[in-house]
Write a structure and sequence with these properties.
Length: 219
């Protein structure tokens, strides 16, 4: 049985993650290195754990979270689909059960807001975890004067946390934004599609999605 620890120790996976992040760095995108994928993996598993999922589903969510961005190695465009194909080869070569491979690559192939659909609980957990990782430490540009809107919005976020309340059936993304760098309207301008995908992912998990920015409930 392939475990999350097996994936984290796999040198091929590490190289693909690092090289994919180098490609995104050259394009001016925010950090997508091991810090991001590890956080997403942990959060995806935690979401399902909070909802009472099986230990194996929690493990598969973490594996999908860790591998979800390797497709950026090939191209940013359609990276979820190319990443799913890469993950298929890696996981199959590691001897993972085909049904579990199918679950993981389905989640990876559906995590991006351009084409993604939360088709099951694992893909929904991955979407919520990935789209919740907004923080200033992911901004590579160290010169605020040259920030574009994506830099400004990400840098403005001083606190980001996703709270799963099983009793109230809610998934709440809480953000604290320093409006010196970005307005709430800026956030919606670039992240509205992501937030709508989060809403659909929460729906799949039987939750109501809420977005709270600077203490104000916006969704």
């Amino acid at each position: 049985m392939v475990t999350f620890n097996d994936i984290k120790r796999n040198e091929e996976v590490k190289i693909y993650i690092k090289k994919a992040d180098e490609s995104l760095s050259a394009l001016g995108y925010t950090e997508h290195n091991l810090a991001h994928v590890t956080k997403v993996a942990t959060m995806a598993g935690d979401i399902l754990a909070e909802l009472g999922a099986s230990p194996r589903d929690i493990e598969l969510a973490r594996i999908a979270g860790y591998m979800h961005d390797i497709g950026n190695l090939i191209n940013r465009a359609d990276h979820s689909q190319s990443g799913a194909v890469l993950a298929f080869r890696i996981l199959s070569n590691m001897g993972m059960d085909p049904a579990e491979v199918a679950t993981v690559i389905c989640a990876i192939g559906n995590h991006d807001e351009g084409t993604g659909v939360p088709v099951d609980d694992i893909s929904a957990a991955l979407i919520l975890a990935d789209k919740s990782d907004v923080r200033r430490t992911r901004v590579r540009n160290i010169e605020p004067a040259s920030f574009d809107i994506h830099d400004r919005v990400n840098y403005s976020v001083t606190l980001s946390r996703l709270i799963i309340d099983n009793e109230c059936a809610e998934a709440t993304l809480e953000l604290e934004i320093d409006t010196k760098y970005s307005s709430v309207m800026d956030y919606f301008e670039i992240f509205l599609e992501r937030m709508m995908l989060c809403k659909r992912a929460a729906d799949k998990l039987g939750l109501r999605f809420r977005l709270v920015i600077n203490g104000q409930s916006l969704i």
